[in-house]
Specification:
With 274 residues, the chain is mainly β. The chain has 1 helix and 18 strands.
């Protein structure tokens, strides 16, 4: 009895990533080492019959499900990309169940071609040849992933001191490139300034002020009321990771100005990646 070849029920078409089911009947013992051989060809009605897909898969039973154009699974397959069927072209699917040179069962069916097929459910392929992307597209996707994936965490930030040790003098600094932010660490607070909170580390009085400019315009003004303060430039909430794209999006012409209150001294550090 011939092999039953079944495209999807309710949508009897063949196309990219459509599942083809093969069923050999009546029941028989499939000898070890047997294989399924699958061929998808154009028909004479369309033009000279040409093979667009071949696949060989181990036969471990009397049924097989194979996804057209997929390189996943145990099957060895090949695609002829020089032949591009049009919507509605009649395609011929031929299947054989073989054990070496012996043909155990065969089957054949003609079905229309659907150019869309099942592409909205394309499985993720692990090789660029089977991903459905051209080499250029694969390279572009890899580049976008590399730039947007959160590949660096704030644990990797390094410190570069802007001040030269503790100082109470005004501080001015022009950033040479991308900066994640700055840290202000106070080293001296006058005795008449007492912290007003149970943790002993918050002063109502403003002990220092940091101002960030872009060009001549004030961008960020941060008063310092604690013994240390991290000032992230991107945002005030906690950002634990950044992508490789972040530095390329950063504003240039950034500068810093800082003032310490009477009797207050401290150090300022510039934070960026090495």
């Amino acid at each position: 009895m011939p092999i039953t070849i079944a495209p999807p029920v309710g949508n009897p078409v063949i196309g990219p990533f459509v599942a083809i089911s093969l069923d050999s009947e009546p029941p028989q013992v499939v000898p070890p080492g047997s294989t399924w051989e699958l061929f998808v060809n154009t028909t004479v009605e369309v033009g000279p019959g040409q093979t667009i897909w071949t696949a060989t898969a181990p036969a471990t039973g009397q049924q097989l499900t194979h996804i057209l154009f997929s390189q996943k699974g145990p099957a060895t397959s090949a695609r002829n990309t020089s032949v591009v069927p049009k919507q509605g072209d009649t395609m011929r699917i031929t299947a054989e169940l073989r054990n070496g040179a012996t043909v155990l069962d065969t089957g054949q069916v003609d079905v229309p071609w659907d150019t869309q097929g099942n592409q909205w459910e394309i499985p993720y392929e692990t090789s660029t040849q089977s991903s459905g992307l051209t080499p250029t597209q694969a390279s572009q996707l890899e580049e976008v992933h590399g730039q947007t994936f959160l590949s660096r965490t704030i644990d990797q930030l390094t410190l570069h001191e802007i001040t030269n040790g503790p100082t109470g003098a005004p501080v001015g600094f022009n950033f040479e490139g991308w900066a994640w932010g700055v840290i202000v660490r106070l080293t001296a607070v006058p005795g008449d300034a007492e912290p007003q909170t149970p943790d002993g580390d918050y002063w109502v009085r403003t002990l220092a002020v940091v101002r960030i400019y872009r060009g001549v315009d004030l961008w960020l003004r941060v008063p310092i009321h604690t013994s240390s303060k991290i000032i992230p430039f991107a945002e005030e909430n906690v950002l634990v990771g950044v992508s490789a794209l972040t530095p390329t999006q950063w504003a240039l012409q950034l500068s810093l100005q800082a003032w310490f209150g009477p009797g207050v001294e401290g150090q300022i550090f510039w934070m960026n990646f090495p």
